[in-house]
Amino acid sequence: MKRLTKEEKHEYRFIFSEALGLPTPPKTPRGADERFLVKLMKFEESKFHDVLREVAWAKTTEVDKTVLYQFYMSESYEILFEVPSIVKEYVSKEVAQDLVAKLNAAGGVAVIEEVDEEKE
What we know:
Radius of gyration: 15 Å
Oligomer: single chain
């Protein structure tokens, strides 16, 4: 359980509570402006490592800024191999724009989309 991210722990709470017949846990509170996601659409093969570094850093800052980004490399590899894929979700517009700029500068093509609340 220590290796799971906050989002994974949150997902498993729902799974276990449903399987065991427990009341559904409350959803994670989010700010009103945290309704955007960043999706990596494609990237240049020659810039693979630069894009990988940016994705790994984005996944690291999602959980804890003091954790080394190398721990999130395997998850980052999955994101790059399954393009188009979501890099980060439930962020503010400013954070999303910053991440898109970094990914585009590294050689990727990223877009900002609004989170579809109905899919939750």
